[in-house]
Design goal:
Chains A, B: GO terms for molecular function: 3-isopropylmalate dehydrogenase activity; metal ion binding. Two copies of one chain form a homodimer. Chain A is α/β, with parallel strands linked by helices and 352 residues long. In chain A, 40% of the residues lie in helices and 20% in strands. In chain A, helix 6 links the parallel strand 8 and strand 9. The interface between A and B is large, with 55 and 55 residues. The structure holds 3-isopropylmalic acid (2 copies). One 3-isopropylmalic acid sits at the interface of chains A and B.
Amino acid sequence: MIKSISIIEGDGIGPEVIKQTIKVLNSIAKKYGHKFHYKNLLAGSKAIEKFGDPMPEETINHCLKADAVLFGCIGDPKYDHNPKGMRPEDGLLKLRKKMNLYCNIRPISIFPKLDKSPIKKELLNNVDFIIYRELTGGVYFGEKGRYKNGDKAYDHCIYSKKEIEKIGEKAFKAALFRKKKVTLVDKANVLETSRLWREVIKKISLDYPSIDLDFLYIDNASMQIIMNPKKFDIILTDNMFGDILSEESSVLTSSLGLLPSASIGDDKSMFEPIHGSYPQAEGKNIANPLGCILSGSMMLEYFGMYREKNLLEEAVKDSIEKEICTPDIIDSKLSSTTEEVGDYIKKYIIHQ
Amino acid sequence: MIKSISIIEGDGIGPEVIKQTIKVLNSIAKKYGHKFHYKNLLAGSKAIEKFGDPMPEETINHCLKADAVLFGCIGDPKYDHNPKGMRPEDGLLKLRKKMNLYCNIRPISIFPKLDKSPIKKELLNNVDFIIYRELTGGVYFGEKGRYKNGDKAYDHCIYSKKEIEKIGEKAFKAALFRKKKVTLVDKANVLETSRLWREVIKKISLDYPSIDLDFLYIDNASMQIIMNPKKFDIILTDNMFGDILSEESSVLTSSLGLLPSASIGDDKSMFEPIHGSYPQAEGKNIANPLGCILSGSMMLEYFGMYREKNLLEEAVKDSIEKEICTPDIIDSKLSSTTEEVGDYIKKYIIHQ
Ligand SMILES: CC(C)[C@H](C(=O)O)[C@@H](O)C(=O)O
Ligand SMILES: CC(C)[C@H](C(=O)O)[C@@H](O)C(=O)O
């Protein structure tokens, strides 16, 4: 197959993790006879510096035309005080919206070999759930602003039935191929938007009689995810709650650096690690490339390349079994560099 | 001293934990020559059943006149689908608002004897922080509703400078007597209300040069609270984020049932355990009364009864050291009943 992939390296450790991911994807392409055409695009700090815009039109246009976007990470404390629309994060939000990537998929699974989680090991056996986070609505995209001379600020959270239906359908479909359970997380005892979520999701569940649907308030969920992580299968939730729960869930694994994500729309898609730009690690060859590499693996799955995806994930598992790991997930005296992890995975793929 | 205390037992395990708390408070009163006058008031399900209102005017009026309110817990799944304003939770929110209890204080500390936390023990030494949660503003109290025939729902989040200042001052003052650190948790990379929080809190910090102020995004905070709980002293945050973080933090201790809270206004106050009504445990004599008893201890402190508070907390610690504990925090084969825990603490106080 031939695929065109827009690449946004972004800020901080973005370029380093993307480099390893492309290396690995190329070894997959070679082995299976695919052609991946990459196009490097600017966004985040670098685009602010060059174009005065964290998400230039050119970048958006290329992303809209590509078969998929592979995204590193953006964010730079230097620009935190930029005016609205001019922060790196604004660029990311704009791209998600323009590409209509309403469904953000964040799988949480455990590598039993690793032991850097703050959670007691016996609680982590068989933890395997996926967060379906709504990504283009809610309080992230509602009107926001100031009044009374700037003394009052507001953020509006809005959801429509349609928005909830679209991601709801995707979540139930996913559950069919898994443990057949959907947990809707909301704050329906306080929020009207949450009550709409419950209504719509209950209605969808009637079409999926084999799926167990249950409900948790966000406060309770943030506790249950740590106390009983095994009990989850698909967690379905809104933009803000999904942001919180997915980063919180990283404590179950040994590092935020391990976690991939896919953002899907009706026909567009973007793949990005959950971790941020981690400026303190930039250029030190210590960043964990696995979150980005596993995002690449979600991209292969999206392309329908299942054997390819399986091989890539086997290679990642093997690198962890053999302790070819960056210092965030292993004793730093034994650790490998970002580059060495990428090389190991590439070699594994070639030699299988 | 003479104090009038409004009592709201509420739903589920509320009556049981309140009963033990009053027992313990009475032993304190007797020992130190105080008089506590209690007035039982209805709210939550029982008030819905009797008056068709989860927070009757009479209850509010008494609470406004009392020196303090001691609150059990409310909530009953039976009423989850009641119309707006008619759910037990609506009653609690109304009372907080009417009493102007804008500052909710939720201390998180560890009893080293206990080992039911899912977190590895070595991470928990010296964990001791307090969450200052804004309680009468934000998305909880902004306008909410439906339009487009109910197909769209909205919740407005609003904050004013004043609202942030009031709780901000209280948080900085508290830090002066502690580890001198305030962490503001927000989502300033996305929300305008969060940006107002940052502005106002930065400005307040200028008056407190001895206090270290730092900032965390809510997604990151929900991870850090588990990864590095020791590093926090005062966590200051808005209504919604405070709800989530405080319940999440309960995983550091061995049980949600242990956690007290105080809600303070300019001259009113209410004390309530963090746990909910836990209907499954109702009437079984297994509910942990310590969250409520420790809320009583925060009330004693609020009354300026410092020796009394210290003795009560010593008694609670002793009950845990001697393993007189409900089954949520100890091996259930060794556990005591709700009643037995209250009796033990009462006896300890009398005999000291
Ligand atoms: C950078 C930020 C705007 C973003 C978000 O909150 O969505 C990030 O935290 C994420 O989870 O992808
Ligand atoms: C019952 C509910 C409305 C309440 C809240 O969200 O404030 C509770 O979760 C709490 O934390 O006190």
